[in-house]
């Protein structure tokens, strides 16, 4: 169902890899709600994914950009304003990567140059995106910037590895930059702390299947899907949430406020019989 929530709004969506990704689902929903946008991904992500199909489906152009490169981001923002015919109203940062996770290095045995690369891609890139937008005065007033995060920033999930630290950094950047963006340009900045989601990136985490089942049993509403997250993101891009900023918003079916659930207790009691 469409409500025309984003009619006349322009944006940039980072990180759509394939149809399982939250950024992909968000792009589809933004399109349905009347928004127009430029799609951007790192050159390697574009080779791995199927972003061309999404561009065709939503009538969007793709601008490759390495989100860790200030030059690439400057080019992206200038071209996006030109293509879209005006300043930006919304931005989705859906970018995360850990070389340590990918290569199977434990949290207690990190290769630090890999750690630094992951921090640069997953967290510092958010600061770089916002700084480039801010310095160029590229955002319209009452615009909205959203980044995707995970609750491992606050609590221990052992196999999430150094991505937990990256997400904590990301959330801090959202608050700190969000203050200046709100004060100076009336732009809001928030992070969405999403349920474990069966995306290409999510499934790379060790023990993912077991954990997604555990989260499903813990959450009174069950896990939020990628499409659910896209819908929530649309609400944050819309004019209905103009005074929501500097927030880390848990979108997880209630998981973040649970201690234990009946379903989880039953599973443990069965195991002891």
From TrEMBL:
Q: Which domain of life is it from?
A: Bacteria
Q: InterPro entries from the entry? A: Enoyl-ACP_Rdtase_NADH (IPR014358), NAD(P)-bd_dom_sf (IPR036291), SDR_fam (IPR002347)
Keyword vocabulary terms for this entry: Fatty acid biosynthesis, Fatty acid metabolism, Lipid biosynthesis, Lipid metabolism, NAD, Oxidoreductase
What is the catalytic activity of this protein?
a 2,3-saturated acyl-[ACP] + NAD(+) = a (2E)-enoyl-[ACP] + NADH + H(+)
Pfam hit, one: adh_short_C2
Identify its protein family.
Belongs to the short-chain dehydrogenases/reductases (SDR) family. FabI subfamily.
Enzyme Commission number, as recorded: 1.3.1.9
The record's annotation in Gene3D superfamilies points to: NAD(P)-binding Rossmann-like Domain (3.40.50.720)
Protein name, UniProt field: Enoyl-[acyl-carrier-protein] reductase [NADH]
Q: In which pathway does it act?
A: Lipid metabolism; fatty acid biosynthesis
Its source organism is: Bizionia gelidisalsuginis
Q: Which residues form a coiled coil?
A: none
